[in-house]
Design the sequence.
């Protein structure tokens, strides 16, 4: 873990409720694909967010923060970052945290499953795999409630179209009449597409309550192997 001070370079909206934050640490940051950082608001108040960029981009940290008035945890964090940005002050962060980073010591195909802004966790892993020219098959499932929440849909689809071993599958829980892709819960889409999950390494990020349901459903009804499933939420549920 690194304890650093960082400049808040930019805060920009991705959707009505999701913002991209770019931090520039005072020194290069060390982390593995799939790890997270903590924004330090106080000695006993640290807020965890997945790092969205790949480890080679060590001069900056990209975050995707979903914040609404009902979510004080994220909203307070975003306001802390905005205040620092406006006052040109540095923020305190801890980086290189988590136990669900990408494992490269095997040749199993990979499933990346993201709910909402859990996309940032999967994005870091996917970008790193592409950068190192990993030829393992990668299936990237991104589940959201509404189509408008797919803020990186076109970017990810274009990226997938340029790579033979990479597939991007967006899943919308409450689709419009014009939506032609997968619908419903994102993990159910995985189970619909894949008969057995036993051969796969599965990396997951999303709401903690969602992760518990997905873990149990995958193991009990799709043959997933617990030792090959990775989510930092598992430490808390």
Sequence:
């Amino acid at each position: 873990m690194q304890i650093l001070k960082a400049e808040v370079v930019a805060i920009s909206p991705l959707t009505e409720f999701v913002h991209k934050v770019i931090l520039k640490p005072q020194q290069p940051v060390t982390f593995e694909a799939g790890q997270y950082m903590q924004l330090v608001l106080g000695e006993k108040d640290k807020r965890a967010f997945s790092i969205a960029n790949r480890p080679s981009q060590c001069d900056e940290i990209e975050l995707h923060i979903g914040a609404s008035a009902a979510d004080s945890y994220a909203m307070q964090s975003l306001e802390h970052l905005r205040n620092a940005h406006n006052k040109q002050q540095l923020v305190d962060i801890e980086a290189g945290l988590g136990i669900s980073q990408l494992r490269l010591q095997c040749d199993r195909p990979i499933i990346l499953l993201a709910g909402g802004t859990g996309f940032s966790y999967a994005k870091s892993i996917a970008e790193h795999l592409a950068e190192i020219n990993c030829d393992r098959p990668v299936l990237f499932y991104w589940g959201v409630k509404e189509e408008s929440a797919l803020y990186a849909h076109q970017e990810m689809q274009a990226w997938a179209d340029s790579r033979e071993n990479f597939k991007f599958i967006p899943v919308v829980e409450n689709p419009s009449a014009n939506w032609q892709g997968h619908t419903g819960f994102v993990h159910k889409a995985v189970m619909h597409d894949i008969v057995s999950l036993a051969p796969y390494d599965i990396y997951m990020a999303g709401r903690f309550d969602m992760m518990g349901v997905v873990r149990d459903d995958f193991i009990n009804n799709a043959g997933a192997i617990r030792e090959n499933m990775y989510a930092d939420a598992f430490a808390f549920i």
